[in-house]
Write a structure and sequence with these properties.
The chain is an alpha/beta fold and 313 residues long. It has a single domain, classed as Metallo-beta-lactamase, Chain A (4-Layer Sandwich), CATH 3.60.15. The protein is 29% helix and 21% strand. The strands form two sheets. It has a seven-stranded mixed beta sheet with strand order 1-2-3-4-5-6-7. A five-stranded mixed beta sheet has the order 8-9-10-11-12, with helices on one face. Strand 6, helix 3 and strand 7 form a beta-alpha-beta unit.
Length: 313
């Protein structure tokens, strides 16, 4: 998606939305590459944060925003998954206990420090230090914010990544889903499973009686977004099945495909990465198995006409 320089999102565009009493969503437009959402709960003794941000500057602005609501420290940080837009800022929460699924810790360390060239436009990351979760779980854990129960649960199988967790607040019908849902952006499954994401959305997310959902990217929404994302994922699977039958590469299949009703979504080149993942599993790979992500990202650049992927972080 092209835009003029004055349209590029900036730090100052971030918005704080109180989705329920003392429960906040921190929204960073435009939600494209490396520009994610976070959120936090305010209690009498401190703050629980759901994810951080990608760069030092964005994470510091998020911390400053939390301080406008509460003078208490952030004593707990929850990572919904390992991707750097949600975890690179962990190190700046130096007084927090960092929680995540055991594979979140593993994959934060496997991914390593941020990079941009030759895939992304240049980013000023700041002095990022890896700070993976140091309290991990296999299935989930219940947190308490004063008397409010907050349920942190692994979704049970690869989806957006191998290690996605959701944060459910049953007393408020509020659900933080991380990057299982993108609102206005193209879903991205390269490090997870397209088929797995469909199963998780159908069997794990849909049955939750949430009225307010905070996606990993884009505006706060309701459960209607789930079907929108499922439509895209099923479209990817159809393209992948046709491509495998035809013997064309993921890049060739993407170039031959009209995005149609999904063309308006941010970062359309993600179709290529999604097809790399779907092809791998259609050809026998286990869901979430490690594949050549650098080759897939390079194909995304090729799909983008040889231009590095747009990044405003």
């Amino acid at each position: 998606m092209s835009s003029s320089a004055e349209d590029h999102p900036s730090l100052g565009d971030a918005r704080l939305v109180e989705v329920s009493e003392n429960v906040f969503a921190y929204l960073q437009p435009d939600g494209s590459w490396w520009i994610n959402n976070a959120g936090f709960f305010v209690g009498k003794n401190g703050v629980v944060s759901i994810d951080g941000c990608s760069t030092a500057a964005r994470t510091k602005r998020y911390i400053e925003t939390i301080a406008t609501v509460s003078t208490k420290p952030v004593h707990t940080m929850v990572n919904t998954h390992h991707h750097g837009d949600h975890t690179f800022g962990n190190y700046l929460f130096d007084s927090a206990t960092i929680l995540g699924h055991e594979r979140t810790r593993e994959d934060v360390l496997h991914y390593g420090l941020p990079f941009d060239a030759p895939i992304f436009e240049s980013v000023e990351w700041g002095p990022v230090e890896l700070a993976p979760p140091f309290v991990t779980y296999q299935s989930g854990v219940k947190l308490w914010v004063d008397d409010l129960p907050v349920e942190l649960s692994y979704v049970g199988q690869p989806a957006h990544t191998t290690n996605d967790s959701i944060v459910w607040v049953p007393d408020r019908s509020v659900l933080f889903v991380g990057d299982l849902l993108f609102n206005g952006g193209t879903p991205f499954l390269l490090m997870g499973s397209v088929a797995g994401a469909i199963e998780v959305l159908e069997n794990v997310i849909k049955p939750i009686p949430a009225t307010t959902i905070v996606p990993g990217h884009g505006d706060v929404c309701g459960p209607e977004l789930i079907d929108d994302v499922l439509d895209y994922l099923r479209f990817v699977m159809t393209v992948a099945e046709d491509g495998v039958r035809s013997g064309v590469s993921p890049l060739e299949a993407a170039r031959e495909t009209q995005l149609g009703r999904f063309a308006h979504l941010l970062d359309p080149e993600r179709i290529v990465g999604n097809l790399h993942r779907a092809y791998a599993e259609l050809n026998g790979a286990e869901p979430g198995a490690r594949i050549d992500t650098r080759a897939a990202l390079a194909d995304m650049v090729a799909y983008n006409g040889g231009r590095r992927l747009t990044c405003y972080a």
